[in-house]
Amino acid sequence: MQTLSRLLAPPLDLSGCLFSAIVRDTRGVRLDASDRLNYFPASPLVTVTYVAEGEIRLMASVGGVEPARTAVPLPRISVTPPQDAPTLSWCPGPVHAISVGVYPDAWRRLSRDCDLRDMLASACATHNEMSAAWRHFCDALRPRWRQVRGLSFLPEWSQAARLSAWSRGLVTRFALAGRGKSLRAVEQRIKRWTGQTRRSLAFYAAFEDLHRLSVQAGNESLADLAVAGGYSDQSHMGRAVRRATGFSPARLNRLIETEEAFWCYRLLGERF
């Protein structure tokens, strides 16, 4: 029996606040300790996680199984803020969980009058099947998002555009909104609403573009890929990949292809 990992896209009318949901189910699967590690890249998203069965231990830095054994388990429902470095978690046994990625500006606006943790926990308590729980959660969130969206000057973007369009759209809209039009004023608004600097948003946008280009490039060399991605050279690209994932492009590709612990990268279709 194989592990189950699913990527659930939000409805189009919620694509301005939700990035996606990831379901992980290892019940009934025999995995050794190292296969129960979970590697994730750096992310500007706020992540809400509900653990229906099992246990997840989030580590402060990338390491191995032994440090994970002493890590503190996440509560059944938890929130992880944006991470500017790769993260690692470990499940000591079978687990069934769902994690919802929320754009940080939407999180800030929604958190004023609703608790997404309670909404996700309620949905998962009502439905044993995570796809049904996801639909329930989206249905409950829809009127709240419609209400706060009317007060927002944030852009709408399509589900397919993903992080790069979100980050670039924010920079453009913040440049047009508010009293101050200087670069410093725009950067202050970005930081206040997302917790990210303009440079950090540009990094995530470029990194996602690099992933898209790598998929399209096929057998193109890493040097050519670096130039196409807007990096000065292959070394510059390598530093960006290492910053986001903790690994060089070549090593990361090998790990994605061979190691169960890199299931999230495979699910997102990432390679470099």
Short description:
The protein is α+β, with helices and mostly antiparallel strands and 272 residues long. It is 46% helix and 16% strand.
Keywords for this structure?
alpha+beta; 11 helices; globular; five-stranded antiparallel beta sheet; Jelly Rolls; 272 residues
Number of helices: 11
* Structural category: alpha+beta
Considering the protein shown, what is the CATH homologous superfamily of the domain at 4-149?
Answer: Jelly Rolls
Strand content: 15-25%
Summarize the main sheet: 5 strands, antiparallel
CATH fold naming of the domain at 4-149? Jelly Rolls
> How do the helices and strands follow one another from N- to C-terminus?
EEEEEHEEEHHHHHHHHHH
Any idea what the shape is? globular
**Residue-averaged pLDDT:** 87
CATH architecture of the domain at 4-149: Sandwich
Could you estimate the helical fraction of the residues in percent? 40-55%
Uncertain spans: 157-161
CATH class of the domain at 4-149 equals: Mainly Beta
What distance lies between the first and last C-alpha atoms, to the nearest angstrom? 29 Å
What is Rg?
19 Å
Strand order of the largest sheet: 1-2-8-4-6
Number of strands: 8
Structure characterization notes:
The structure is a single chain. With 272 residues, the protein is α+β, with helices and mostly antiparallel strands. It is built from eleven helices and eight strands. The protein has a five-stranded antiparallel beta sheet with strand order 1-2-8-4-6.
